């Protein structure tokens, strides 16, 4: 069976013999009787994988250590499990009973293992307790840990009669992966107290778990114990400690430790790698000290290290958090073009890189840079999320007030927003309608207002006023009246500017009867409009067929 932290797998044992794995400890080969036919059929994998937990439970009933318990015993502490083993006389009945695997607890997890490992585990489970070696237990322990069932793996570890160094190492890592740093440290201390020598990966796992919880002082104590045991810390160990110092805000100490590792020339300590530098500069970026982070970045490049995408993303995030999105934009463009000032070829930006810079530019109102970032993002094969598209569409629509050339870009982003399945906000609809009206695309603006009304969105005054003005500029007074009727039907009173635009166009067309009707509708709703300014404003311009207006709800 594969070891927990390696990808290689040992060959399956033969149907009648099993030899202990050498990497788990020494154990003589133990002959065993042929497996029952009922179990053999369950151990044989099939293309359809027709095994299920119930079949496994029935199969395990036929062997010595597959006893089905109706109730699970109360949980044991690590100390309790150890003392039980000593009191039982080293393998007596009590010890053997507690070492039996509870099939109901393990069946579903075992069924989730890959076919080869599942067959191996079932092959081991059919043996009697007296025939199981420490290597057998370690195989099952590693398989459960690899399957992610750390709780069951720890329960099996507590039930083992005589765990060895490998058993302790797997259990310590399971506790670390569970996020239990105090329990992991206690088990590590017990492992050392029993005379076992933990490896660098075991020590490093505990240091990392403690640092992730901010227990830096305990992590330093483990580091000291690691040196005292004659086990030299690796750069992974130091990286965990540097990360812990940054996590608790001790940035200067983290930087000092980085400099200590960098100045080491006698080989007593490992040299810092790019991840060491990245962890420290990320810590400075998160508290708005980007200039100091950039100095650390330059040090890494001067040391001959190649910054990774994580390094650059940390700097991008720092610039944006500090309120300098244009600096982040410049760094992002260096990544896109591959022409960095510090390295020959910076890494290409990923989706996270764009996701950091684009929202920051939008929040700062830098719509030009945001649009270029969006275009670069599309060329790189990434899609902006709905929220970013919504904000970008708003920014481009606002630009249309001074630059109508942005209308095409605004329409493209708005169409992409709708196609993405993200429903635009009411404000985005209104700004898009305004931009279309200002650009002379009144039919599209009118259709957009109709969509808003059908979806129950509130019509903003500036949006429908701009649409009414655009319609009146094209002498389409009937459509303008329909827009105002739509506003009234939703319980709102059109503003003065909308009524003025409609009255002015009717006066220019000489349709005084219709103009008087619109004026009366405005006064009826308490809207004060200037009638005199429209007198004598008739001029020659194309008009609609002069039929009396049907004011409908406006009357």
Can you lay out the helices and strands and say which pair or pack?
Layout: E1 17-18, E2 30-31, H1 37-43, H2 53-60, H3 78-87, H4 93-99, H5 103-111, H6 115-125, H7 134-146, H8 150-159, H9 165-177, H10 181-193, H11 200-212, H12 216-228, H13 235-247, H14 251-263, H15 274-286, H16 290-302, H17 309-321, H18 325-337, H19 351-363, H20 367-379, H21 386-399, H22 407-419, H23 426-438, H24 442-454, H25 461-473, H26 477-489, H27 496-508, H28 512-524
Antiparallel strand pairs: 1-2
Helix pairs in contact: 2-5, 7-8, 7-9, 8-9, 9-10, 9-11, 10-11, 11-12, 11-13, 12-13, 13-14, 13-15, 14-15, 15-16, 15-17, 16-17, 17-18, 17-19, 18-19, 19-20, 19-21, 20-21, 21-22, 21-23, 23-24, 23-25, 24-25, 25-26, 25-27, 26-27, 27-28
List its traits:
single chain; 555 residues; mainly alpha
Question: If you had to describe this structure to a student in words, what would you say it looks like?
Answer:
There is one protein chain. The longest helix has 14 residues, at 386-399. Strands 1-2 form a two-stranded antiparallel sheet. The protein is an all-alpha fold and 555 residues long. Mean pLDDT is 76; it is low at 1-104 and 542-546. 61% of the residues lie in helices and 1% in strands. The chain contains 28 helices and two strands. 42% of the residues are buried. InterPro entries: PPR_rpt, PROP1-like_PPR_dom, TPR-like_helical_dom_sf. PPR repeats lie at residues 164-198, 199-233, 234-264, 273-307, 308-338, 350-384, 425-459, 460-494. It comes from Eleusine coracana subsp. coracana. Pfam families: PPR, PPR_2, PPR_long.
């Amino acid at each position: 069976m594969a070891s927990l932290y390696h990808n290689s797998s040992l060959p399956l044992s033969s149907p009648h013999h099993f030899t202990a794995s050498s990497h788990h400890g020494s154990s003589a080969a133990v002959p065993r009787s042929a497996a029952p036919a009922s179990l053999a059929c369950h151990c044989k994998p099939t293309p359809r994988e027709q095994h299920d937990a119930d079949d496994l439970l029935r199969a395990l009933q036929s062997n010595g250590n597959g006893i089905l318990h109706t109730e699970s015993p109360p949980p044991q502490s690590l100390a309790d499990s150890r003392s039980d083993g000593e009191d039982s006389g080293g393998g007596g009945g009590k010890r053997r009973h507690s070492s039996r695997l509870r099939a109901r607890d393990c069946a579903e997890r075992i069924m989730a293992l890959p076919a080869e490992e599942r067959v191996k585990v079932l092959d081991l489970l059919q043996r009697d307790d007296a025939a199981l070696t420490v290597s057998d237990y370690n195989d099952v322990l590693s398989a459960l840990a690899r399957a992610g069932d750390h709780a069951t793996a720890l329960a099996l570890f507590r039930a083992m009669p005589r765990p060895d160094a490998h058993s302790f190492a797997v259990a310590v890592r399971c506790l670390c992966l569970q996020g239990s740093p105090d329990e992991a440290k206690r088990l590590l201390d017990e492992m050392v107290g029993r005379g076992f020598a933990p490896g660098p990966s075991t020590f490093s796992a505990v240091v990392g778990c403690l640092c992730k919880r901010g227990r830096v002082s305990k992590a330093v104590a483990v580091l000291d114990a690691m040196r005292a045991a004659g086990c030299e810390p690796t750069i992974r160990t130091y990286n965990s400690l540097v990360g812990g110092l940054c996590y608790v805000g001790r940035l200067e100490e983290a930087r000092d430790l980085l400099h200590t590792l960098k100045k080491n020339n006698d080989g007593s300590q490992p040299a810092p790698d790019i991840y060491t530098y990245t962890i420290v500069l990320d810590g400075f970026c998160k508290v708005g000290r980007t200039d100091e982070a950039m100095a650390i970045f330059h040090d890494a490049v001067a040391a001959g290290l190649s910054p990774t995408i994580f390094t650059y993303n940390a700097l991008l995030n720092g610039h944006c958090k500090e309120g300098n999105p244009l600096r982040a934009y410049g760094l992002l463009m260096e990544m896109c073009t591959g022409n960095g000032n510090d390295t020959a070829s910076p890494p290409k930006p990923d989706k996270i890189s764009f996701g950091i810079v684009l929202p920051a530019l939008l929040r700062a109102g830098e719509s030009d840079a945001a649009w270029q970032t969006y275009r670069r993002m599309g060329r790189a094969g990434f899609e902006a999320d709905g929220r970013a598209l919504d904000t970008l569409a708003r920014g481009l629509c606002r630009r249309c007030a001074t630059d109508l050339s942005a209308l095409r870009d605004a329409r493209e982003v708005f169409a992409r927003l709708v196609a993405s399945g993200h429903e635009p906000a009411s404000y985005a609809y209104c700004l898009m309608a305004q931009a279309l009206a200002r650009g002379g695309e009144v039919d599209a603006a009118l259709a957009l207002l109709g969509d808003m009304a059908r979806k129950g969105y509130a019509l903003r005054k500036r949006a429908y006023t701009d649409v009414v003005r655009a319609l009146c500029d094209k002498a389409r007074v009937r459509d303008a009246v329909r827009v105002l009727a739509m506003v009234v039907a939703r319980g709102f009173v059109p503003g003065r500017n909308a009524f003025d635009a409609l009255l002015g166009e009717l006066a220019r067309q000489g349709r005084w009867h219709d103009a008087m009707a619109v004026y009366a509708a405005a006064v009826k709703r308490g809207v004060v409009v200037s009638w005199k300014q429209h007198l004598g404003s008739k001029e020659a311009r194309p008009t609609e067929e002069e039929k009396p207006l049907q004011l409908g709800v406006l009357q």
